[in-house]
Design the sequence.
């Protein structure tokens, strides 16, 4: 007897990876939802009994979906699948009724053991490889075809890498980091300051940048730190002195070290390559975003820009991280994407 399964994630790549991670024979038909509202509509019609739920989604996020499931008493068991691996995130979803948590990217072995533990899956010792393959083929054929774009691919691997950097920051500072949805855009250098969300705010920023390279990929990581956040961040970092230009530079360097290292390593692990970071450089302090990014506007190259806006819960601390990938990196990324979705 199979299980009626719903996979809810705004990322097409994540939906495809989750479907492929399910053990053979578990479901003849898998339903998909690209957002929380769509998932709730399916659940209200009682078309699914097991939900794999992402947390980081636009409009209605995973936390809100869990709240609706509980308040409406919808008959479904939920397993959260997320790149947000902060201990606080795990605790919150369990309090909202999720039976368990799986970190992204998903792994068939982990999923199988978890489903076996909850009684959804009982692998037979008599199953042979041919039966597994046939069942897998039937399951994939029953599921709708999922196409994945390069932007969706970059957004999803950025989401996982962001989860690592947020988790490190949360553990070091004993805070909860709000998880935004990474923005991915293909833009010209000269348009960079107009495209990012930090440029829409009136505040001044200070910035540090750090280049990175690997086999087939190169780029630059930039951290734009809101000036109004410096004192509170210095307090969280337990500095003896909380104000002054030297303190501000130290905050910039510490924050870039925490966020860049974990994020770039997270990207490298998913791409199966080693990315090396160069030396950090302060681009400027206490200036509008367009001035801090002025050195980019003089170059004609197109960039793949990934923007992540970090914010700490119950703290007036904000910063934006930009990952700028060169045009020459695109063929490598497209090759990796084709391998993952094959």
Sequence:
């Amino acid at each position: 007897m199979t299980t009626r399964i719903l996979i809810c994630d705004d990322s097409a790549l994540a939906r495809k990876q989750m479907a492929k991670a399910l053990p053979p024979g578990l479901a003849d038909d898998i339903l998909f939802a690209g957002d929380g509202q769509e998932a709730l509509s399916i659940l209200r019609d009682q078309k699914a009994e097991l939900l794999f739920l992402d947390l980081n989604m636009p409009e209605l996020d995973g936390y809100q979906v869990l709240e609706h499931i509980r308040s409406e008493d919808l008959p479904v068991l939920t397993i959260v699948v997320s790149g947000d691996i902060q201990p606080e995130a795990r605790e919150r979803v369990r309090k909202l009724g999720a039976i368990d948590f799986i970190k992204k990217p998903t792994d068939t072995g982990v999923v199988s053991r978890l489903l076996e533990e909850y009684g959804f899956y009982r692998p037979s010792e008599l199953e042979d490889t041919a039966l597994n393959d046939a069942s897998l083929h039937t399951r994939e054929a029953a599921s709708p075809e999922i196409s994945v774009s390069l932007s969706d691919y970059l957004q999803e691997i950025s989401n996982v890498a962001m989860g690592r950097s947020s988790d490190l920051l949360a553990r070091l500072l004993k805070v909860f980091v709000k998880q935004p949805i990474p923005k991915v855009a293909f833009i010209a250098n000269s348009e960079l300051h107009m495209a990012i969300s930090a440029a829409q705010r009136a505040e001044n920023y200070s910035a540090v940048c750090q280049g990175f390279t690997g086999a087939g990929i190169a780029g630059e990581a930039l951290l734009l730190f809101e000036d109004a956040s410096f004192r509170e961040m210095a307090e969280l970092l337990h500095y003896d002195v909380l104000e002054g230009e030297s303190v501000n530079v130290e905050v910039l360097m510490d924050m870039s070290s925490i966020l860049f290292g974990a994020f770039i390593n997270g990207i490298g692990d998913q791409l199966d390559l080693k990315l090396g970071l160069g030396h950090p450089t302060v681009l400027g302090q206490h200036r509008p975003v367009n001035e801090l990014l002025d050195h980019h506007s003089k170059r004609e190259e197109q960039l793949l820009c990934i923007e992540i806006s970090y914010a700490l819960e119950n703290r007036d601390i904000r910063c934006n991280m930009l990952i700028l990938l060169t045009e020459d990196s695109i063929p490598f990324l497209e090759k990796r994407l084709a391998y993952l979705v094959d």
